[in-house]
Amino acid sequence: MPKDGSGLSLDGLGMPLWLVVELTYKCPLKCPWCSNPVEFERYRNELSTEEWKTVLRDGRKLGALQLGFTGGEPMLRRDLEELVEEADRLGYYTNLITSGVGLTVDRLRALKAAGLKQVQLSLQAPDRQLNEALVGLDVFDHKIAIAHAIKAEGLPMVLNIPISRYNIERTKEFIELAEDLGVEYVEFANLQYYNWALLNRAELLPTREQIERSERLVQEARQRLGKKLTIYFVVPDYYDDRPKACMNGWGAIHLTIAPDGTALPCQEARLIETIDFPNVRERDLAWIWRESPAFQTFRGDSWMKDPCRSCPEKERDFGGCRCQAFLLTGDAANTDPVCAKSPNRSIIDKLVGCAKHEKPDGSNRLIMRDIRKRQSHADVE
Amino acid sequence: MDIEKPLRLEDVVELNPTHHFRWEEPQQAHVLLYPEGIVKLNETAAAIIECVMGSTSIAAAAGVIEARYGRADLMPKILAFLEDARAKGWIRIKS
Ligand SMILES: C[S@@+](CC[C@H](N)C(=O)[O-])C[C@H]1O[C@@H](n2cnc3c(N)ncnc32)[C@H](O)[C@@H]1O
Ligand code: SF4
Ligand code: SF4
User: Fold this and answer.
1) Based on the structure, what is the number of domains in chain B?
2) Is ligand 3 within 6 A of the CB of residue A71?
3) Is residue A8's pLDDT more than 50?
4) How far apart are CA A247 and CA A291, in angstroms?
5) Residue B28 placed within a domain
6) Which of A35, A133, B59, B66 has a CA between 20 and 30 Å from the CA of residue B94?
7) Cα separation values, A48 from A20, A41, A263, A266, A278, Å
8) pLDDT tens by residue, A245-283
9) How far is residue A237's CA from residue A5's CA, in Å, rounded to a whole number?
């Protein structure tokens, strides 16, 4: 996905240039910040191989160019190689977004032969012990071995590091590790607080000082390493006074298909309970993209209320994130509360004020991603 | 870190192997596709990239482009564009 804060503003001429297919919500890991729905087990009715191929074909017809295979853990789908091959034949630039679990050298070679262009590998800690504590399984050595294998196959690789209070103090070690691995891109992705991350927010949110320190270390490394290693640093929007230009606007260039075929303007959007999202099993993708009420709702700027409506910056940030507006203010059409001009900014200030200054104390306060009995966001506020 | 020398007319450049360059019908434009990125190229940019990719040197490519546009003064602009393209990682000098 385009990096938040990269300043990218792309005119897709109304086409969904970026297609993201979440092949499954299943995953062997238990990251307590997982962006998948808290009730992920409710959506077990995954699209079949043929249904996914139809999505890929229809997406290309709508003008999609970049394709991300993600999840859950996409390696759990045995038909991944077949889908990559079909996507490559259709002319997509294919990206695999994986934790590395389930990826073997053999499958990597098969994926490359099928036309895979890029791998984004997530790494949660620079050492085995912390990694196990954060994902619930001892997979660090495997991830490192897979990173080497990806390099050996000559595939470009982005190392994705989801950043929280639990690993932000390890910035330097992450960079050294990336250098050792010889990757070209590292993405320090400060967490976005939806779904599991929202459940665990109080425990995960770093302080402003921690983020500034981490960013300084990244700056130093950039100077030192130059072109050898490109480091993206995604600042958590809570610490900003303007919202991110979320998804380049609702229904502008992004289209996500969830495991059960639900079509979404972004991976988190199904948490907006007030919108009924269409499904590719029931409707044609062209209708979904161009005409469905869900994709029209926040397209353009006619839906905006003040302060966004009369704001000169609305073409730059599109009023921010609809999911965040819904989660924190209760109305998805409100200005993203991150914005200093939002009448709800005090909500963010309060959350930021609660960021813990002490070190994580080792006792496990994190709610790990797992199958849960009914739980709504209201329970955790 | 290597200090990069400016491009010379006799250099042979190639597309970064992670990048794909092609005509995209729905966009009615050439596009560059690369890890996590899409760039839509305007006609001149696309013409330069297309020519340098198939040429034995930057000078030879520039000759072709100048002939196509019926002009003899495009070299500085072409070099500037190529430097920019190299800085962005789109192209590199063929070794
Ligand atoms: C949901 S995962 C699916 C792919 C695979 N299971 C993995 O973790 O790499 C997609 C990407 O989102 C990142 N991610 C997960 N939760 C996040 C959050 N709350 N904020 C930011 N990034 C997150 C992961 O690190 C991963 O790079
Ligand atoms: S973020 Fe973690 S738990 Fe969520 S899908 Fe990826 S690896 Fe699995
Ligand atoms: S008021 Fe709305 S449009 Fe203006 S900067 Fe804030 S979020 Fe963006």
Assistant:
1) 1
2) no
3) no
4) 19
5) yes
6) B66
7) 16, 17, 15, 22, 18
8) 989 999 999 999 999 999 999 999 999 999 999 999 999
9) 10
- Residue type, position A191, single letter: L
> By residue range, what is the domain housing residue B53?
13-93
Residue B37: give its domain's CATH number. Answer: 1.10.10
Residue B3 lies in a domain: no
Whether residue A27 contacts residue A77, with contact meaning beta carbons closer than 8 Å, is answered with no
Q: CA B93 from chain center: how many Å?
A: 11
Question: Which among B15, B32, B36, B90 is the top mutation candidate for probing chain A, defined by the most A β-carbons within 10 Å of its own β-carbon?
Answer: B36
CB A116 within 8 A of CB A84: yes
At A59-73, the pLDDT tens digits run: 999 999 999 999 999
pLDDT reported for residue A115: 97
As for the ipTM of the complex, it is 0.86
Three-state DSSP at A233 gives strand
- Strand A93-98: give its sheet, edge to edge: A230-234, A185-190, A157-163, A118-122, A93-98, A66-70, A18-22, A254-257, A263-264
Q: Which burial class, exposed, middle or buried, applies to A240 when counting CB atoms under 10 A from its CB (0-12, 13-18, 19+)?
A: middle
Any domain includes B83: yes
A vs B: CB pairs below 8 A: 48
* Predicted pLDDT of residue A12: 66
Residues in chain B within 8 Å Cβ distance of A95: 35-36
In a 3-state reduction of DSSP, which class is residue A15?
A: coil
What's the pTM?
0.92
Geometric angle at alpha carbon A313, from B37 and A298, rounded to 5° = 70
Task: Give distance in angstroms: CA of A285 to centre of ligand 1.
Answer: 26
In a domain, B5, yes or no: no
